[in-house]
Amino acid sequence: MAVIGLMAAAANLNAQPPQGAGMPQMPPVLNPEEKTAQMAEKYKLTDEQKQAVLELNQKYDGKLEMKMPEQGEMKDFRKMTDAEREEFMKEMQSRMAEMQETQAQLEENQKAYEDELKGILDKKQFRKYRSDVLRAQAEREQAMQRGFGGGFPGGGFPGGGMPGGGFPGGGFPGGGFPGGF
Fold it and tell me: pTM of the entire structure?
């Protein structure tokens, strides 16, 4: 069962549709200055808070976003030799473990960022910030569910596929894996 989940995840990673073809789009990553300006306007920061938030955003620049690994060309699974399939599966297991480690590090970084931010913002500003973060997370999850047609079999990350369960029709469009496997 885990092998099938890895194959489905790998096929999705390597066979992504063109931009705008129904897949959720991630918002652009803002540089520290842009992020600070956006936060200053949204949360009505004082000049002192703006400077402290800018320094915090510079400190955590690049440490709060998932960077997607490079993806090679997807081969037809049916045409792979047993040795190629075995190597492919090992690579997918390694990628999944790497992604889980990265996710854990991102969560630690986000918590540390928010702990420091809490010391800069007043209670009302921080509550609004947290409310906005939770709303954005919910919107991303809904977009992913729509974009993946309900998700991968098995439920949510980590370790069980995408939120929501399987694809409509029980697999990839047309049934089964890419190439009819």
Answer: 0.60
Predicted confidence pLDDT, tens digits, the chain (181 residues): 444 444 444 444 444 444 444 445 566 788 999 999 999 999 999 999 999 999 999 999 988 887 766 666 777 878 888 898 898 889 889 989 988 998 999 999 999 999 999 999 999 999 999 999 999 989 988 888 887 655 444 444 444 444 444 444 444 444 444 444 3
For residue 33, the one-letter residue type is E
3-state secondary structure the chain: CHHHHHHHHHHHHHCCCCCCCCCCCCCCCCCHHHHHHHHHHHHCCCHHHHHHHHHHHHHCCCCCCCCCCCCCCCCCHHHCCHHHHHHHHHHHHHHHHHHHHHHHHHHHHHHHHHHHHHCCCCHHHHHHHHHHHHHHHHHHHHHHHHHCCCCCCCCCCCCCCCCCCCCHHHCCCCCCCHHHC
